[in-house]
Specification:
TIM Barrel; 362 residues; alpha/beta; disordered C terminus; globular
Length: 362
Amino acid sequence: MTDLESLHRSILTVDTHIDIPWPDRGDFAQDTSYRHVDLPKLRRGGVAAACLVAYVGQGPTDAPSHAAIGRQALEMLEAIGRAGQAAGARLCPLADEIEAAFRAGATAIVPAVENGYAMGEDLSLLAQFRARGARYMTLTHNGHNALADSARPMAALGDGETRHGGLSGLGREAIAEMNRLGLMVDVSHAARSTMMQAVRLSRSPVLATHSCARALCDHPRNLDDEQLDALRDCDGVVHVTAVDAFLRPRAVRQARVVGVADFVDHIDHIVRRIGVRHVGISSDFDGGGMIAGWRDAAESPALTAELLRRGYDAAQIAAIWGGNFLRVLRAAEAVAQIGTGAGTGHEAGTEHGPGTVAGTGA
């Protein structure tokens, strides 16, 4: 085993955003030719933990549509649960469980939900998502929903530039309920107004599970430097993602192939702006993510190699690859008092200063 392989496999690596193909084929344990992520590829790539997301695309915001999409999201989480029972994998909603799986040499599966549209206007669905193992929910996708404004309004759905001016009243209630449940608030895809309000409202650190730096690529899905500062101030994390359109402008993509070096350029910018403590890694595999040098989970050591080449040490690489995500996960658990059976008891919709975490003062 080379020094690179030894280092990479010694790190608890977490890919924080992977889509699952739907309808489910029950093939997660197989080495497939058509998936960028399956259990054999995760093993070959030394990826210790994979956040598999139940993604639902934005549609009409009427009661029948909400009911149908809520059922689909629950079915998708159940499919992720089955993937977590595959040979050599474990369903691991808690940080301690992820670490225990890593020590045992098992792949950890962490469920999540992408798009608050999945809960419609029914806050009780959040507890059902959490009961199926979900640990974060992305507030929006492309198109405004009942909770919040999206970074990318959809004219085909009748969206104007804004629907709520950021979070709706329901969205504020949803964040309070997510905090109570230990369901982390993911602001990828959210409008800038939504994101900044969510950071102020959430009692646990906010994360962006698959976004890049707008300073390097002016795309509405990316976070500008002030948004990065807000994530730092709430002790959150932004996870750079392997979508070429988020990494480089169109002119660059037309001139050359976007690869791992471009990806790590975004990590470098975020580290210079807000520090190693606040940056992580995601692929968005099977949801549009794929770049030269990191085309599937099996090629994940290429990122470690590039980070080493840039001068990051082992502790910094470990923080970027998974340590920062686990810190935010534990903070959410502390706010929710997971394991004690108690909630936070805070008032829904109450705003808190950046960085305020129950019980820590951080």
